[in-house]
Design a protein that fits this description.
By secondary structure, the chain is of the alpha+beta class. It has one domain: Glutaredoxin (3-Layer(aba) Sandwich), CATH 3.40.30. The protein has a 4-stranded mixed sheet, covered by helices on one side. The longest helix is centred in the first third of the chain and has 16 residues.
């Protein structure tokens, strides 16, 4: 289970992928780069939709990979499919 218990107002990123997703595996390095470049600014969590399909469905995930941006446990932005580091950082800037 994913537990998001950060300080109020902090941006959380939930990377939803699956073991069988080649695009998701290739995005792992993009997510790692985003995390490294924004340490202290955004908390990154990962969800394996193959291991927890009920949770992924409850979150409204319709395609893998999906990146959800959350604030106070509420979704504020979503990117579906392959995304670049630049796209992720642009969304992060808009959410800040």
């Amino acid at each position: 289970m994913i537990e998001v218990t950060r300080a109020s107002g902090e941006i959380q990123l939930l990377f939803v992928t699956g073991r069988t997703s080649g695009v998701g595996r290739r995005m792992e390095s993009v997510i790692a780069s985003l995390q490294a470049r924004n340490r202290g600014r955004v908390a990154v969590h990962r969800l394996d939709a193959d291991a927890q399909p009920e949770l992924a469905a409850w979150l409204g995930v319709r395609s893998i990979p999906t990146v959800l941006f959350l604030r106070d446990r509420q979704p504020i932005a979503c990117l579906r499919g392959r995304a670049t580091l630049e796209e992720l950082e642009q969304v992060l800037e808009r959410c800040a």
